[in-house]
Amino acid sequence: MKQKPVTIYDIAKEAKVSTATVSRVIANNYPVSEKTKKMVLDLIKKYDYQPNAVARSLTKKESKMIGFILPDITNPFFAQVFIEAEKYALTKGYTLILGNSMNSNEIESKYLRDLSERQVEGIIFMGGRINKSQPDHMEINELKDVMNKIPVIMVNGKIDGINCSSVHTNEAKGIDLVIEHLVSHDHKKIGLIGGVKGVTTTDIKVNAYWRSLTKHGLLMKENWQIYSGYDVDSGRKAVETFIHVNESDLPTALIGINDLVIIGALKACRQNHLHPFSFVGFDNTDLTKNATPEITSVSHPYKDLGEKAIDLIIHTKTMKPEEIWLDPYLAIRESTNRPH
Amino acid sequence: MKQKPVTIYDIAKEAKVSTATVSRVIANNYPVSEKTKKMVLDLIKKYDYQPNAVARSLTKKESKMIGFILPDITNPFFAQVFIEAEKYALTKGYTLILGNSMNSNEIESKYLRDLSERQVEGIIFMGGRINKSQPDHMEINELKDVMNKIPVIMVNGKIDGINCSSVHTNEAKGIDLVIEHLVSHDHKKIGLIGGVKGVTTTDIKVNAYWRSLTKHGLLMKENWQIYSGYDVDSGRKAVETFIHVNESDLPTALIGINDLVIIGALKACRQNHLHPFSFVGFDNTDLTKNATPEITSVSHPYKDLGEKAIDLIIHTKTMKPEEIWLDPYLAIRESTNRPH
DNA sequence: CTGTTAGCGCCTTCAG
DNA sequence: CTGAAGGCGCTAACAG
């Protein structure tokens, strides 16, 4: 089964030319006579010769690989960004290596190291340590070590003390869009649920929420903003505390820190026969389209996010750190209506 | 920012030993005096030296990378398997390279080629060409070419004319489980929707469906099995044709070829005020847990699927092709009840 | 247009 | 226990 691989040398020998010539016809970046070119090409086909990318990487000192570290590809939000990045990278001749950290710091570190040893030309980082407002020293230092060797860029994240390029969804603007939308549907009492205080993206959204309420002169009740986490169950729990705490004075619309949370909230409301709510998610994952009712959600500019991330890696060698901000948009669906 | 990388040679020089010695302390597989070992280790730390995995791959002729080609990582079914494989691979010292084919034949071919050039030690293949009952010659030949060089293994797929190792979910058994479950809840009229005739997994499920109905002596109506595709919309469409074709004589339970289809069906039923149905999905993705009601679904043995796939790659060098069949189980949820 | 010659960074005999 | 030397497969000057 495993045949010994044919090398550029084998081809050269049989073609009675030098390896340099073979290399040239493969790279096709240098004049070679039509005749020898054809001959070499024929042999390449005959033996199904494939250049050894590892050897090439070693000589050229470029691996044409880019690392991508994220917490969990099973999460459609990350998967969306990743796949856009991959599609784009492919057109540029790059291959991505995905590292799922599973929210484990050690695995994150392991991949950081592994990818760098594998000579990836850059690492795209999403989630994990780059979203903590208080990352520890070790974590920062590891990143810095890697950044001494290859460019690291962050998607929707930022760490104090690390100065690298990044692409961001303007999530604050996303919240603005939601609230404008709700206000235009006559909602005056709007709640925000989910997330964890101290996680960058949560903080951004929460701040934007309060700012936007103020701007629209809406009622602000501290109890209408509830931290609870990021999964479906967090959404359910949030609704329950909600009912407890706010009793009769409930908002007419609920914004989830992400889609999972709002789905949990929707389920909980249904179980408790609470219908006056409008629901808005964040991330615009498939979940929102598949839910009943279909849920309005803020969408990241996935394509741009992925493509810019790749561009930053490819070009960062020659550029100084750059921060790119991209606007989200609102995917409006059935879950937002006028309050009764 | 980009400092010139420190090599094994730099370390050797400063330690006044040979590169061989440094190599030995790194590999830690050969006697080296404690003193020089410590010295080298200190220097490695001092310069944050990391061995160049590309160079190592070249000399050792092993890349410690495994390729994984699948249609779309955004699909939680594939993502599940991939992530289990990745976790396991990591413990074995391997890194996975993911290739999303986006259901494009060309991309599939491109990755097949790219991964093989990158010297991955094997390729795990899911979906795409390995699920067609009539793959074309080109597709098969490409696979064969690759298989001459490195092991290829298939997950839940098989092609005539290709003889390689594979891991499978026993999907027929999954259908059996569903029907038993439904029968035990007094269902006698059971439908199956979704899928495409000629796609291996669909064919398996459809065959199992008829066989199981026979076995239980249930009513078999040709119109109760409807091909329609794999996405949410296919589910919706299936229900609509259903209503058209079967008019008053509707089954009391519906099985979806996968979770997406059953979710579409659920939505359509709700819109048409059709409530007597019980619903069962296939794949046990998060979708089923997040739906309302939560949907009963057949679960693949994800962990085993992923781990066996890796094992097959790692060990296949010394073994002859092997076919592993794993049993699914039924995740029972709210969507299956007794018929009225 | 083509061949020769050095490496790329590391590992692995083979001698000490 | 340690060093010297060769080579993995390919590319990039440098000569012709």
TrEMBL record, chains A, B:
The record's section on CDD domains has: HTH_LacI, PBP1_LacI_sugar_binding-like
Q: Does the keyword Cell cycle apply?
A: no
Cytoplasm as a keyword of this entry, yes or no, is: no
**PROSITE patterns attached to this UniProt entry:** HTH_LACI_1, HTH_LACI_2
Segments forming a coiled coil: none
**Keywords linked to the UniProt accession:** DNA-binding, Transcription, Transcription regulation
The HTH lacI-type domain, residue ranges: 6-60
Q: What is this protein called?
A: LacI family transcriptional regulator
Q: InterPro entries attached here? A: HTH_LacI, LacI/GalR-like_sensor, Lambda_DNA-bd_dom_sf, Peripla_BP_I
The secretion signal range is none
Q: Which PANTHER family match?
A: ARABINOSE METABOLISM TRANSCRIPTIONAL REPRESSOR, LACI-RELATED TRANSCRIPTIONAL REPRESSOR
